[in-house]
Design goal:
Helix content: over 70%
Distance between the termini: 62 Å
Structural class: mainly alpha
Number of strands: 0
Shape: elongated
Low-confidence stretches: none
Mean pLDDT: 79
Strand content: under 5%
Number of helices: 6
Length: about 170
């Protein structure tokens, strides 16, 4: 886990240094990208945790939000470079926020009610308590979210950038 968080820190430093060498208008786009990334991270955490019974809608929102930001930033702010530049901080913010919220959720619910399958599984694996087993499972889920969410966010965001670059032909009579 330390390696993954170290890679995140390196990516954040590189991203912060690259903001100084961009075109005009990117600062506002990056602020929206970070805010959208936090929302995308919350949506993925709600999906992974099962807090609401809206699984299909949460997946649609997790795909549409990065695509909309990518399309809007590429279409209105200056092309593919700005569009992809807005997708990177969004992906970093989404992954890190989902990791943080999922880890907090694992800590908060580790000692909660459990079913017989969890009792049997924790006893079979030699854990001292069910809470230890559930915390381990929660951290594994958080790490998976930390790795997968940025990749999905970049994928959907780049698709949005490509869609944002499509120009409608001029109407001629």
């Amino acid at each position: 886990m330390a390696i993954v968080l170290g890679c995140y820190a390196i990516a954040a430093v590189v991203e912060a240094r690259s903001t100084a060498q961009t075109v005009v208008g990117v600062a506002a786009t990056r602020r929206w990208a970070v805010l959208t990334g936090l929302v995308v991270g919350l949506v993925w955490t709600m999906f992974a945790s099962g807090w609401l019974d809206l699984h299909g809608w949460l997946l649609v929102a997790a795909a549409v939000l990065p695509a909309v930001l990518g399309a809007a930033s590429a279409h209105h702010r200056g092309g593919i470079r700005v569009g992809v530049g807005s997708v990177r901080p969004m992906a970093l913010a989404a992954g890190l926020s989902a990791f943080t919220m999922s880890t907090l959720e694992a800590f908060a619910t580790a000692n909660g009610p459990c079913d017989t399958n969890q009792l049997d599984e924790s006893a079979a694996r030699g854990y001292a308590s069910v809470a230890t087993y559930r915390m381990g499972e929660g951290l594994a889920t958080s790490l998976l979210l930390l790795l997968a969410i940025p990749l999905c966010t970049v994928l959907f965001g780049v698709v949005g950038v490509i869609i944002g670059q499509i120009r409608r032909p001029a109407h001629t009579r």
